[in-house]
Amino acid sequence: MNKQSKLNQWIALLAMGLGVFMGLLDVTVVNVALPTMARGFNTTFTNLQWVLNAYTLVYAVTLMIMSKLGDMYGRKKVFLGSLILFVIASAINGMAPSLLILDIGRGVQAIGGAGMMSLSMALVASNFEGRQRGLALGILGSIIGVSSASGPLIGGYLVEHFGWPAIFYVNVPFGIIAVILTIFYVAETPSYGKNHKIDLAGMGLSAIGLFAIIYGLIIKESHPHWSWFEPQVIGLLLGGLIIMITFVFVELRVTDPMMDIKMFKRPHFLGTIAVAFSLGAGIYAYNAFLTALMQNYIGYSAVQTGVRQLTISGWSLVLGPVAGILSARYSKKWMIVISLVIGGLGFFSMAKAISPTVSFVELWPGMVLMGLANGMVNPLLNTAGMEGALPNEMGMVSGLLNVFRQFGTTVGVVGLGLIQDAQFKNYLNANLHHIAMPSQALIGIKNALINAGPFSGHGIAFSERLSKMPFAHELQQVVIKAYDNGMTAVAITSGVLVILGALGAAFLMRNRMTNQDIELKKAK
């Protein structure tokens, strides 16, 4: 390959990296803009939830559909169309005159984000060969790690200096650059669906099933005091599960299925999706709780929080290319296992550090270990996932890894939130009655704190009204310790989830899978 061709490859990687960065950043960047949006639209945080949920839901349910369309009709075409759609939707969101338009725009933007994310790994795998492929996938893994964790920093800076529309407008110039580079430098992949029919039944069932399950989890997250058997929750979860089971039966019988269900018979593939799920449920879900700890309880601003969280995300920039190079020489499986164990130790270190006087000084060693794990595992997972996948499967493998990473994040946020809420409530019930205050006031304050939950409890305890009470200091200490009790449980649970991911990788993944291995398994 001549120097010009090699240069074109790396420019193509830049185009795909820009798309991935924008698509994943927009999953988290909106969080820090919500207070400003609430004032701008003169509405409540509750009404703003769909600005977040519309993107999360549509993004998750369209990942596999966009993957399949890319495999069938050319990944470059679908990636490019997704990129253009994302840029247009970003511009509309920045100009949105009402909350309804913004919510719809976020859903459209998510379709573009899903297309970019689901096809990027497959395009990189088909645009590079040999050791260069491992390095390129490693760099893409770096971008995934950085974009997922840098939302608070980038969002905080843009909102603070330019207002909330800037978090959408910033996508436009970078998106246009990515479109131009994609057109001229990204090589198209073959179309594997020339003689295939679109599996409309499979696409519809997968979208509806995933939507129901994820929306059910979002409702449970929004109402932590509801029972799992609340009709709105159990109905969606059970309905979604039944639809997904139906989806499997349909795919086994369709001539041209959306997804080859037999992929799930491969232990190596199961190991990679177990790692993807543990990354989402452990590291990415925990980031939301860490951000709340640093902002609500320690008192850092959004930008100060984002700068300190570079202790986690910064490692992705350094370790992605390194992981890509090492993956050509050493076992990706055992590098993933060791990295996840290091991440688990980081969570246990965080759990030990949490106290009423905790600051960044006590947290950073654990954050560094989390960052090392994230920085190593993401790029290695990309390479391991693509390893052994047949050319016509690469888009779907990429999409499924992203589905399980996103699904893990959703499950993690809900599960960790319920654990934190239970520990917060238990500590309040056990310790509030020790405070010398009128019994009527005690009941009212306890109910208010429990209903507000761990995130908002701090605002109640430190409100101007309660701060003037003679028992204020004692009450505030109990609330902080209750919150710490919940955060400790969250950190330990996250550590266990990451360690379970390491065990899944150790027992299921193979040291090296080749296309020949897959062909033999399919023949059987």
Automatic annotation (TrEMBL):
Keyword Transmembrane tagged: yes
Superkingdom of source: Bacteria
Location of this chain's protein in the cell: Cell membrane
Membrane topology: Multi-pass membrane protein
PROSITE patterns found in the cross-reference section: MFS
Transmembrane segments: 12-36, 48-66, 78-102, 108-128, 135-154, 166-186, 198-219, 231-250, 270-289, 309-327, 334-351, 363-381, 402-419, 487-508
One protein family per Pfam: MFS_1
Keywords tagged on the record: Cell membrane, Membrane, Transmembrane, Transmembrane helix, Transport
GO molecular function annotations of the record: transmembrane transporter activity
Family to which the UniProt record says this protein belongs: Belongs to the major facilitator superfamily. EmrB family.
Protein name listed in UniProt: Drug resistance transporter, EmrB QacA subfamily protein
